Amino acid sequence: MDKLITLIERGKPFFNAIARNKYLKAIRDGFISIMPIIIVSSIFLLVAAVPNVWGFYWPTEVNDVLMKAYNYSMGIVALCAAATTAKHFCDAQNRDLPKGNQINFISVMIASVIGFLLLSSDAISLTRDGVTISGLANGFLGSKGLLTAFIAAFTTGIVYKFFVSRDITIKMPEQVPPNISQTFKDILPFSACLALFWAFDFAFRSVFGFCFAQGVIQVFQPLFTAADGYLGLALIYGAMSLFWFVGVHGPSIVEPAISVALVSNLELNMAMYQAGEHATAVLTKPVQDFVVAMGGTGATLVICFMFAFLAKSKEMRAVGRASAVPVCFGVNEPFLFGAPLVLNPIFFVPFIVAPIANIWTTKFFIDVLGMNGFMFSLPWTTPAPLGIAMGLGLQPLAFLLIPVLLALDFVIYYPFFKVYDSQKCAEEAEVEEAELAKRAARKQAAMTDAFQGKVDNASVASGAVAEAAASMAAEKRRARGEKPAAEAEEGRDDRFAGLNGRRVLVLCQGGGTSGLLANALARAARDHGIELETAADAYGSHIDIMPDFDLVILAPQAASYFDDLKADAERMGVACCVTRGKQYIDLTRDGEASLAFVAEQLDL
After folding, report:
1. How far apart are CA 533 and CA 540, in angstroms?
2. DSSP state, residue 505
3. Among the four residues 123, 266, 402, 452, which has the most C-beta atoms within 10 Å?
């Protein structure tokens, strides 16, 4: 097993290179940016469709009003993706360009949207009551057009970089305001994009008789069908867990390739259900979030609670109980690195097998037992059992699926858990006496230091008197409505005084794990009376806000992006660093250590 893991780990640089690929990253980040559309639109869909499961149907007028919000959001999700993907791809392109000659991402977003419309929409004209109404067909503006949206975004970014990097632009005199100069600078690349999309669309329709978006769907449909089979699902989610096991964020590599299917299958299931048919698609975003990654990648919900309540090892119980709450909300990095599960040979098999078993069981429920597939999307931080129930529209079979999955994961993980528990108990027994001796020695040394006369009793007393006098003076000033001049300094730790007024941004893959360290820093800063501002976000959403911070900390699961982050940081004059797995978890649990880490990175 160790040899197998070593062999897999040798491929880590290759996996990291794939994760850093700017095309895959732009798809992932663009897809994350449109997730609010998918989630919020599903709320209207839940209200409209869930009552149908229990035999209640809204009046047609009410249903139309509810579905309008869905159709005007989810119905143009590809149009939005064309813009968001273009923006993130533009950020990657700008990393290779001089600071004074950057691509205008707003112009790129507009050009991408127009290009996408040319490739995916037909003009329509309706006559009603003698009035002719013209518009655009929206059949491929929703999830069916996502692949075309990505193609339009990449084409636009490449064309803009060609023109901007070669300085093929209209230059204005220095006296012209920068915003006007930028407008003229964008004319040539924008014109080239428009002409290219227009010419290609004309040629494609002339040859095939339908739009490019329809052609893309016809080409990729067999792949979507294959991905929804038992073998395809096992390959997809087995690979995702495998990458995570060796420390590479698996979804960053796998998800861009299946993002279109994740969204389009969700919409397909709803369409089949509303047509009175069996919704059979398995590969959807909620099945990935709540079934495959129940408690996080590796289906770690059950094993975390096994650590917390069944382990005899003190260390395992402590790790399990400390990680239980984050894992309930799908944030399992504290557990993955704290247990650890990552690169732990004992858990290699269940970490790969449990997600596959979960998705196969769900497919069995859909194909054999007649359960409808997932139709509703919820935030990925929704606790998995609730996400399953809501995502399946509260179907009766959903409430059977949940305990089956929990029991299945327990059976898969339990033998390996017992082996690890026995191993940890043996280790703890061996070191317990030595550790107790060391603790006693440290305690004795600390007591000795305390009585070595390093602190003058008289100075302590005078300091106490001075502090009391200062406190009384401050109270009198407050009574007069004045703010004590030294109030901001009270309670501060001089070791971290240099952190006052600093701003720290923590980045991870989805914005969940980064919040753990950001919150730990904020709490520790308050405890030490330090004005330190912290924020947490997902990598890919940081470009616009990054210049506002003094330090950017990259969480371990996003470590493959550090070279790109460093390039951005150098361009913006911001300090940055990356953390290791165990180190990051320790920092989230030790506020003072986290402050010291930040001070060290800022050379304070």
Report:
1. 21
2. E
3. 266
Instruction: Note the pLDDT of residue 487.
Output: 43
- Condensed to tens digits (0 to 9), the pLDDT of residues 18-33 reads 777 889 889 888 888 8
CA distance 486 to 470: 9
For residue 272, give every residue at least 6 positions away whose Cβ sits within 8 Å of its Cβ, in sequence order, or none. 278, 279, 280, 281
423's tokens: 């191993």
From CA 75, how far away is CA 78, in angstroms rounded?
8
Classified as helix, coil or strand, 508 is strand
Identify the weakest region by mean pLDDT among 246-255, 487-496, 578-587.
487-496
Residues contacting 520, CB < 8 A, separation 6+: 587, 588, 589, 590, 591, 594
Paired tokens of 534: 């912290």
Report the alpha-carbon distance of residue 86 to residue 109 in Å, rounded.
6
Pair of tokens at residue 148: 């075309």
B/e letters for 45-55, b = 16+ CB within 10 Å, e = fewer, are: bbebbbeeeee
Mean pLDDT of 477-484: 50
C-alpha to C-alpha distance for 190 and 188, rounded to whole angstroms: 5
- How do residues 343-358 score in pLDDT, each as one tens digit? 788 999 999 999 999 9
Q: Give the type of residue at 353.
A: V
What is the per-residue pLDDT for 464? 44
Q: What does the alpha-carbon distance between residue 334 and residue 586 come to, in Å, rounded to a whole number?
A: 9
Does the pLDDT value for residue 419 go beyond 50? yes
- Cα–Cα distance measured from residue 370 to residue 280, given in angstroms and rounded to the nearest whole number: 9
Residue 326 and residue 337: Cα distance in Å, rounded?
13
CB 74 within 8 A of CB 39: no
**How far lies 303's CA from each of 300, 337, 428, in Å?**
5, 14, 20
Top mean-pLDDT range of 29-33, 82-86, 544-548: 82-86
pLDDT interval class at 528 (50, 70, 90): confident
Predicted confidence at residue 581, as pLDDT, reads: 78
The pTM of the whole model exceeds 0.85? no
> Residue 16's closest CA among 247, 235, 238?
247
User: Beta strand pairing status for 533-538 and 131-136?
Assistant: unpaired
- Write out the DSSP string of 94-119: HTTS-TTS---HHHHHHHHHHHHHHH
CA 326 vs. chain centroid, Å, equals 14
**Rounded-to-integer distance, Cα 243 and Cα 238, Å:** 9
Between 73 and 15, the more confident residue is: 73
Helix axes 178-208, 212-227, angle to 10 degrees: 80
The residues annotated with a catalytic role in the active site are 508
Burial class, 459, CB count within 10 angstroms (exposed 0-12 / middle 13-18 / buried 19+): exposed
How far is it, in rounded angstroms, from Cα 61 to Cα 501? 55
Strands 551-554 and 575-578, sheet pairing: parallel
- Across the range 37-58, mean pLDDT stands at 82
What CA–CA distance (Å, rounded) separates 140 from 122?
10
Question: Would you tell me how many other CB atoms lie within 10 Å of the CB of residue 603?
Answer: 7
Q: Are 334 and 322 in contact (CB under 8 A)?
A: yes
For 454-467, the pLDDT digits (tens) are 444 444 444 444 44
Neighbouring C-beta atoms of residue 72, cutoff 10 Å: 12
